[in-house]
Each structure stands twice: as structure tokens, then as C-alpha cells.
TrEMBL record:
Signal peptide: none annotated. Residues 1-32 are annotated as: Disordered. GO terms for molecular function: ATP binding. This is ATP-binding protein. Residues 29-143 form the Histidine kinase/HSP90-like ATPase domain. It comes from the Bacteria.
Length: 148
């Protein structure tokens, strides 16, 4: 899915590029949030309507997907953001073939678990959630967050 929606890879200083001339994927959630804000701001400046809450939602989704890739997917291998129609598409790839899951908030002994809120947040705020296997291994999660 991500290959169909290529945009300029995001979130590294403009001087940081690899041998192919591409910027590396974000290494922390703050980089992903900044990339989403930058992409949306450019479209809003071009006259498209943008709701401040929607921008925050898109940043939160990008942050959660990036965090999950780092914590559970072996790291972010690719990241793209693109404003399309009335939404922003965020694609995050990682090294793991495991699908995201919703964990119960308590363990078998009834104790509350820390964390486990990221994937439910993504599913609640995003539309067109797609998880695709990548030919080289790993997966790509592609979502669209409405901007209006």
C-alpha cells in the first residue's frame, strides 16, 4: 500500500539523506508528528480547509503508529505522509509480520496493564485502515485520518 502513495520521506534534517538521496524514516514519534504537521500546514496554506482538532488527530495517529513500529515491529523501515482529498494518509512500515492486536486492559490476574492503547486510538481516529505484507518481509500500515 505504501508504495502506491510515495511522498518525500519525512522527519530528518534536510542535510540527512541516504545513498539514494532519500531521507531516512523517523526514528522517534516526535519526528512523525512534525512530518504530519508540515504536510498538513502546506495544504492549509494553499487554501484547503483544515480543522485544528483534525490536525491533532492525524499527529496522534502518526505518533502511535511510529511508537508501535518501534516497540513491537523492530523499528520503522519506511514512513510517508500525504494529504489526499479530505484527509491525510499516513503509511508506516516495520520489520515485523505480526498484525497489530488489541490487548485486554487487565491481565489474567485482574491487574491493570500499562499501555495497549495505541492500536485502539488508531482504529478510532483513522479511516481506511489497511495492513499489508511487504515483499521483503514486514508490514505496512496505511491509514487515512479525516481533516474536516
Amino acid at each position: 500500500m505504501c508504495e502506491k502513495h510515495r511522498t518525500t520521506p519525512i522527519a530528518a534534517p534536510s542535510s540527512a539523506v541516504d545513498r539514494t538521496g532519500r531521507r531516512p524514516p523517523p526514528c522517534k514519534p516526535a519526528d512523525a508528528r512534525q512530518a504530519v504537521e508540515r504536510a498538513i500546514t502546506e495544504c492549509c496554506l494553499a487554501g484547503r480547509p483544515c480543522d485544528a482538532h483534525a490536525v491533532s488527530d492525524a499527529q496522534l495517529v502518526a505518533s502511535e503508529l511510529t511508537t508501535n513500529a518501534i516497540l513491537h515491529g523492530g523499528g520503522v523501515t519506511d514512513f510517508h505522509v500525504d494529504v489526499i482529498g479530505r484527509g491525510v494518509r499516513v503509511c508506516v512500515s516495520d520489520r515485523s509480520d505480526r498484525l497489530p492486536v488489541v490487548r485486554p486492559p487487565v491481565d489474567r490476574q485482574g491487574r491493570r496493564r500499562p499501555g495497549g492503547h495505541g492500536w485502539p486510538i488508531v482504529c478510532r481516529l483513522a479511516r481506511e485502515v489497511q495492513v499489508s505484507d511487504l515483499p521483503s518481509g514486514g508490514k505496512c500500515i496505511s491509514v487515512v485520518v479525516p481533516l474536516i
